[in-house]
Amino acid sequence: MQTKIFEPKLELGAAAAADGAAHIRQAIATRGTAQIIVATGASQFEMLDALTREPNIDWQRVTGFHLDEYAGLPFTHPASFRLYLWQRFVSRLPIPMRAFHYLNAEDDLQNECNRVGKLLAEHPIDVAFVGIGENGHLAFNDPPADFETESPYIVVTLDEACRRQQAGEGWFATLADVPTQAISMSIRQIMKSRAIVCTVPDLRKAAAVRDSLSGSVTNQVPASVLQQHANVTVYLDQQSASLL
Questions:
Q1: How many whole angstroms separate alpha carbon 235 and alpha carbon 3?
Q2: If one looks up domain 2-237 in CATH, what number appears?
Q3: Which residues contact 56 (CB under 8 A, 6 or more apart)?
């Protein structure tokens, strides 16, 4: 695991995007296509903005997968991750992607896990863009996370700390408005990615960063599992790295 610290956040986002873009270009050059996982949330704003402007990527050879999604939210809801990904990433690319496989968690959650999971099984991931939650979650795998399931996507219950983070970031008006369930890519599926680019700015993430990067590997701090990946780089700012 590599850790890189930048300030301000724009530099952090640009560096993470450049790293991920290099993995995408290498995959296309080596295998003819690239498969990526894209995270959402406030921590990814600068990185995704920079990634859409990275030069010399043939996006028509790139397939994207959605990391997680709230249960029951329509595409038009301001907190919908489908809407987020369309507005902040997919629609801003200079040329269309080969495909982007969104998660639709409005109806039968398990059926959607199975549907997108089958697609994912056909597309080994070259680079996963992820973050770390205030409670140490990776995707929506809140503690205690399931480190054992081989299912690519699972239905999860969101803990209160996770839901408070979503409300605190302004995605929902109140805590009561935050859904209690979601679809999430599983821990083992994320760890199958050839490379992981993890972007984690802000002081509110400092304790989670410390516990994830310098504590023991435990499902009580789900992102600590990143310590066991052979090719992961964590991008921090001075604030999020302040407790290391």
A1: 6
A2: 3.40.50.1360
A3: 25
Residue 101's CB is within 10 A of a number of other CB atoms, namely 14
Residue with tokens 């295998």: 31
What are the residue boundaries of the structural domains of the chain, listed by start?
2-237
Cα separation, 244 vs 231, whole angstroms:
20
In this structure, what token pair is assigned to residue 228? 């066991």
pLDDT per residue as tens digits for the range 207-236: 999 999 999 999 999 999 999 999 999 999
Q: What is the pLDDT of residues 167-179, one digit of tens each?
A: 888 889 999 999 9
CA distance 22 to 126: 11
Instruction: Quickly list H helices, 151-194.
Output: 160-168, 187-191
Q: Quick one: tokens of 121? A: 């099984």
Task: Report helix, strand or coil for 82.
Answer: helix
> Which of the 8 DSSP states describes residue 222?
G
